[in-house]
Structure formats: C-alpha cells, structure tokens
Design a protein that fits this description.
Elements (H helix, E strand, L loop, with lengths): L11 H5 L6 H11 L3 E4 L7 H6 L4 E5 L2 H11 L4 H5 L1 E5 L11 E6 L10 H14 E12 L11 E2 L4 E2 L7 E11 L4 E11 L5 E11 L3 H10 L2 E7 L13 E8 L2
Parallel strand pairs: 1-2, 1-4, 2-3, 4-5
Antiparallel strand pairs: 5-12, 6-8, 7-8, 8-9, 9-10, 11-12
C-alpha cells in the first residue's frame, strides 16, 4: 500500500483530540472478548493507549512509520505496566503475519475504506481471519454513505487548531469531496490552512480516496471472506442502523 498517511501525523492528535466517543465501544468489546486484542490502523494510539490503560493487552498495526513514532512518543509518558501491554507493528493491513492470534480484531473509524479494490479488501479480511481465535470477534467501523451531500462544497473539519504548527499559529482544516459513483469511491481533498503569527498564510493540500459500501454489500463481503455478522450498529452508542445513521459498525465472527 502506498503510504500517504505520514502527511497527517503532525496534526492528527490535535485535530482529533476531542473525538473520544468511539472509545467506550472498543473498550466494552475488548473486555468482553479478553486479551490479546489487535487494532488495525492504530495511528498515533488514540484508541490503543486508553485501552491499554484499562488493562487490555493490545497490539497496534499501522503502515505509517510517522504515525507509529507519534504513538511511541506518547507511550513514553505512560506507566511501565501500560507500556508493557502495548506492541506496535509497522505493516500493511492488506497482508500481515504477526504469528499470534487475538480474541478481538478491530478496524476503527473508516480506516477499512482506504482499501479501494476487492483484492485489497479480501487481503485484509483474510489476514484478519488467520489472526483471529476460533471464538474471536472482528469489528469494523465504516461511514454510512450519504450521497445527497453536495459535491465540491468546502466544509470545515472542526475547530481551529491553535498553536499549530508553531506557537501563535492558527490552523483551520477544510475539505471538499467528489463522487465516482461507478466505482463507489469518494475523492476527498483536505485543505490545511495556516495563518502564521507574522501574518503569512500557508496552505497544504492532502488527497484521500475512500471506498464506500452499503449495508447488505458489506455483509456479503464479510460472508465471502469467512465471517458472519452478529451485530450491526448505526453509531458508537450501539443504536440500530437507520437511514440517518452516521456509521455502520459490524461485529462479526468466523463462520462455522
């Protein structure tokens, strides 16, 4: 996989510091399934570290070295027992071999959707299948597509990032998106706009492609890779999937 995710590493934590609403769900299932747990696309440890602090033995896998370096920096601030519960791997989620099995494997917050082709999706799910214990669970969170959203409209991506990248700077992130409906791909462009303390302005652009799925389609993808869906939620509060739900959170097990 081409690694385009290093570009997010410098501002990812500051951008997502208030997003914690998904952590209770991952923690609930980690405790229910038991250690060890594997997080694919663990990034800077936004979820991984809180789970380790709650006593979960957890491995994190990510393709981005810069993201993992940020996670390692954050881990240095944690207690020794927390650090001992965490193992980090730089690897490609399409094809990995950690030589270990896990009771829970989860892919959070739309990360699976960067896998654009059937081959990439199957590769990831096949690798996950091999690493899951017989009674283990696979959880994947993806966004529920809303194709009524206007294309090309510039939208704010949250609050202003103060003192980024340097003290006194003010950075705002915007995005727009376009649909390739034939291929079910959303093309997103992020604009990272920084007003420097000396009055200068800088813009960085980051492009991202994401494959969107529909509920029955994704259920079939899981089934064809040896899984069956046990539960399906529309948000991190475990509410049922509805037309207006922002997410599709699949809880699956190995098919017998």
């Amino acid at each position: 996989m081409k690694n385009d995710f290093d570009a997010y590493s410098d501002f990812y934590d500051k951008w997502n510091e208030t997003f914690t609403s998904d952590i209770p769900l991952w923690l609930e299932y980690a405790k229910k399934c038991g250690s060890p747990v594997l997080e694919l696309c663990c990034g800077t440890g936004r979820i991984l570290i809180p789970l380790a602090k709650e006593g979960i033995e957890i491995s994190g896998l990510d393709v981005s070295k810069k993201m993992l370096d940020k996670a390692k920096e954050k881990m240095k601030k944690e207690a020794t027992d927390v650090r001992k519960r965490v193992t980090l791997h730089q690897a490609d989620m399409r094809n990995f071999n950690l030589k270990k099995k896990f009771h829970l494997i989860f892919i959070p917050y739309n990360s699976f959707q960067v896998l654009l082709s059937i081959e990439e999706q199957n590769g990831c799910l096949n690798s996950a299948y091999k690493h899951l214990t017989a009674q283990g669970k696979l959880m994947i969170s993806i966004f529920h597509p809303d194709l009524s959203r206007a294309e090309g409209v510039l939208r704010s991506e949250g609050d202003i990032l103060k003192d980024y990248p340097q003290s006194g700077d003010m950075t705002q992130i915007y995005s727009n998106q376009f649909y390739d409906k034939a291929k079910q791909i959303i093309k997103v462009r992020f604009f990272v706009d920084t007003n420097k303390s000396d009055g200068k302005f800088f813009r960085k652009t980051i492009d991202l492609k994401m494959r969107y799925f529909f509920p029955a389609e994704f259920d079939r993808i899981l089934y064809s890779n040896g899984f069956e869906t046990e539960e399906l939620f529309g948000d991190y509060d475990k509410s049922p999937l509805k037309n207006t739900s922002p997410f599709m959170i699949f809880v699956a097990k190995k098919r017998s």
